[in-house]
Amino acid sequence: MSVLEIKELVAGYDERVLIRNLSFLVPAPAFIAIIGHNGSGKSTFLKTLTGHVPFKGQILLQGQPYVSRAGTIARALSYLPQKNNVAFPIQVRELVVMGLFRQKRLLDHYTPADYDRVEATLAHLHISHLSQRSFTYLSGGEQQLVWLAQLMLQDAPIALLDEPTQQLDVYHKKKVFDLMAGWVRENQKTVLCITHDLLNLLPLEGYVLNISQPQPQLEKISPEVILAHQQFLEEKLAPAIGV
Ligand SMILES: Nc1ncnc2c1ncn2[C@@H]1O[C@H](COP(=O)(O)OP(=O)(O)OP(=O)(O)O)[C@@H](O)[C@H]1O
Questions:
Q1: 216 touches ligand 1 (CB under 6 Å)
Q2: Where are the domains of the chain?
Q3: Which of 33, 177, 182, 223: CA 20 to 30 A from 15?
Q4: Is the ipTM beyond the 0.95 threshold?
Q5: Distance from Cα 5 to the centre of ligand 1, integer Å
């Protein structure tokens, strides 16, 4: 059974098709970097996978057709959007513990054991010192690391991340790419990660999918492949064609 299969996917908005006839197969847990120019449709593709953008074609998650069972989809996917705002004051540990929501019933309380898992995850990300801080006062990069902690607790087999390293310094960018590589290698997760940080991909095992190309397909990461995509992306994006 494949982890993820996309067959002749067409997706976009009323006036614009952004993803046209995309097909690929991820047979086993893997890291997939989704790259492309600004506005090429990378976020649109992830939002298609989360059910927020209408599509034609087929999406199979762990062998199940996308439209078959909503519960299956929710359990299979975790998603970290590009912009994730919190409009109320909340402590970091309270925000991170919400990552366990799938494992809880509606009125269940979080237990001391749940908070132990939160602390262990924060420690794994080297941000234990943020645990008691108020989330809204953290820096953009610190907030991004907190969202990653919450995503890790969700523990879904397929993680979708929209530019998780966008606001991070070079040290933390590298750490987060190492972390995602670890999820694949040690926890058999599949990670689809939108990024503009092509150089960070060089040491990784996995694939790139360049949404700016006319026929995007999975290509194994190697220095040559990354360099070719870097050069491709340094050119202007061809204008998208309307429906
Ligand atoms: N809900 C929407 N309705 C109509 N058009 C939209 C909608 N959301 C996004 N778009 C447009 O679709 C295009 C692709 O947007 P998308 O966010 O998928 O690009 P992206 O590749 O993720 O870009 P970036 O690298 O800048 O994050 C953009 O031109 C955007 O304005």
A1: no
A2: 4-234
A3: 33
A4: yes
A5: 23
Q: What is the pLDDT along the chain (243 residues), one digit of tens a residue?
A: 799 999 999 999 987 899 998 999 998 999 999 999 999 999 999 999 988 898 999 999 888 887 655 566 667 899 999 887 888 889 999 999 999 987 877 777 899 999 999 999 999 999 999 999 999 999 989 999 999 999 999 999 999 999 999 989 999 999 999 999 999 999 999 999 999 999 999 999 999 999 999 999 999 999 999 999 999 999 876 665 544
Q: How far is CA 161 from the centre of its chain?
A: 2
User: What fold characterizes domain 4-234?
Assistant: Rossmann fold (3.40.50)
- To test the ligand 1 pocket, which listed residue (9, 13, 50) has its Cβ within 8 A of the most ligand atoms? 13
Compute the distance from residue 239 Cα to the ligand 1 centre, in Å: 13
Determine the 3-state secondary structure of 7 from DSSP. strand
* Order of all β-strands in the sheet with 77-80: 77-80, 158-162, 190-194, 31-35, 207-210, 219-220
